Amino acid sequence: xxxxxxxxxxxxxxxxxxxxxxxxxxxxxxxxxxxxxxxxxxxxxxxxxxxxxxxxxxxxxxxxxxxxxxxxxxxxxxxxxxxxxxxxxxxxxxxxxxxxxxxxxxxxxxxxxxxxxxxxxxxxxxxxxxxxxx
Length: 134
Known about the structure:
The chain is of the alpha+beta class and 134 residues long. 28% of the residues lie in helices and 31% in strands. It has helices at 46-55, 65-70, 89-99, 123-133, and strands spanning 4-12, 16-19, 25-28, 31-39, 75-84, 101-102, 117-120. The strands form two sheets. It has a five-stranded antiparallel sheet, with helices on both faces. α3 (89-99) runs antiparallel to α4 (123-133). It is globular and about 35 Å long.
């Protein structure tokens, strides 16, 4: 599969505290979350399939911050946006967090971004931003 950048659109059906491994706990509101990552290693964008398997409880091992949210019982993976052969992870994450509400300290441990996870109460609010990016 091709390498690239992806954003997962997640729904958290009920407010809850989610433990993000070593990053600690975050009190999250019910609503929609956009997590942006990249997949330039072996397997490329097949990483999105791995995230889908976590969300479907077909896999248990958590590697990235988003995995903890994907495995939370109140979380649903709604959609995945991909940009093949494009290294736009930080650009897309910054545009999402500038337009929406950032969830600090998650998904950005290998760059200088504050976060790669953004929140909006309304799905359409996130989708309108994503549609302009992908």
